[in-house]
Each structure stands twice: as C-alpha cells, then as structure tokens.
User: What shape does this take?
Amino acid sequence: GQQVMQIPQYQHVQEGEDFTTYCNSSTTLSNIQWYKQRPGGHPVFLIQLVKSGEVKKQKRLTFQFGEAKKNSSLHITATQTTDVGTYFCAGPPTSGTYKYIFGTGTRLKVLA
Amino acid sequence: KAGVTQTPRYLIKTRGQQVTLSCSPISGHRSVSWYQQTPGQGLQFLFEYFSETQRNKGNFPGRFSGRQFSNSRSEMNVSTLELGDSALYLCASSPGQLYNEQFFGPGTRLTVL
Assistant: This one.
C-alpha cells in the first residue's frame, strides 16, 4: 500500500536556526497537504500544493512539491519557539481518492 | 463558525467492551473522515463519509465501523475493544470536494484497560 515517510523523525534546533522536513511518498500524489500539530493539540491545516514543482511561501515557511509529485518539503527560516510541534504531510494517490495518507511526521523542538 | 466538535473527549473502557464516538462537523461540511493516532503508528485513516455514504475506507478490521447522519454528524463504533485500540481518535470535516483542506476536531482519547 501507499507509504509516506518523513525525515527527520525528530529535530532540535536553537531558536533562530532554520529547519527543514522532507516528505517522500511511495506513489505519485495528486496533491499534498501540510499540517501542524502542537503538543496536546490536533492537526491544523497549513497549506496545500497541487502542481508539479509548485512552491508556496507563508511568512517564514516555504513549501515545495516535487517535479514527480512524490516528494515535498517544508522549510522554516529563523525558527521561533511558537514553531514547536509535529509537522505532517498528507496526500491521496493520484487516482483522486478522498483517502488521505499521512506521513510519519517530524517533531520539532526549538530551544530558546 | 463553530469548529469541529467531538464527544466525549476522554473515555476509559475495558477489553471486550464496545464504544461509540461522535463527531459534529463544521456547518455546511458534508465530509467527515476519521483517523486513529498512536505514538507507534502515527495518523492512520479509518474511513470517510460523504452525504451519509462511506466513500473511502482504510485498512482496519471490521470491528471499526461508522455512519453519518443526514445532518452530517458522524459516529464511529469500535466493538470488542482490544488493548491496542487505545489511541486518540480524530475526526476531520471538509466541504467534500477534491483538494479541500481538512478541519480536525480536538479528538477523543480512548484508553482500553
């Protein structure tokens, strides 16, 4: 079945350092969504990418969707303590199903 | 707009019992998806309902079932509970078209003793 892996699993950074998490799917994705889950909270939608090679920015966050639509990345510039949480990517297979497969997640800790 | 609500928030059951969890989506949303979140397996898709019909199903045993009502509220049921069913159960609502973002509820924390 479809698998979506994320690396790294954990990342500790000093406040102000940059952070990147990578998402790799075993199958082509029709689109990819990114979510953030704070400790003790629930996933919150960040962004969606649909087009091959697409790049989107939200303030300090930059999202990329690979050319082959099998991988994606989230880069945070100059991390802040508010960035703490687990970042998940999620996507359905290209067949257009409404079934979203979530990545394994990257837990980010930011040290002040 | 009110967010997604889930009841109860916490639940303790014993092995062999059954449990029913409830999810009320955002007003106007017709799709409700259910996920199981555990430290070991992460976020796993259970099923998705749209207009009272199960549209997609994950790889869970038949002990896990769900339904959706005409007002889009959804319930999921787990019968013959096992210790491994202890998890955070999250529901997410969306308008129901392709490429819609999902809005998650706070979840129900189920502990099976």
User: Anything to note?
Assistant: Residues 16 and 80 of chain B are 4 Å apart (CA to CA).
